Structures are given as structure tokens and as C-alpha cells.
Amino acid sequence: MGNVLVVDSRDAALKESGDVILSGAPIYAEAGEIFSGLKPAPSSQTTIFKSLGLAIEDIAAARLVFETMQRRANC
Description:
49% of the residues lie in helices and 19% in strands. By secondary structure, it is of the alpha/beta class.
């Protein structure tokens, strides 16, 4: 059993992430590949996720907060 590296964006990780670049670790998949079923989730290994803060993640987080606050206001 080993470690598996999952990133939010393969291109961004290979250009902007010093720790990914310097480690030389192979990237197993992008998170979207796992979520969409293109790659199986590595359940028998330790998964290391490197997030580079893509704008879509910020939008998804903001939407989650907004919807939560709306539900609380309507209770």
C-alpha cells in the first residue's frame, strides 16, 4: 500500500505547485476524473489531495454557504 496523489487540475499542479513538481510523484487523477467515474477512487491507499484553489472551487463553496444561509433564514 502506498500513497496516491489527486489534484484539482493536473496542468495547474505541474506548472504552479512546487511541492508536486519537486516531489516527482505521479499524479493519479484529477478530482473530477474520480467524481465522474473515469478513474476509480483509490480506497486501499492513502490519498493525498493537492488543491490549487481553482475559481470553480471558490464558486462551489460560496454557493454552499449561500444555500445554507437561505435555508436557515427560511426556517
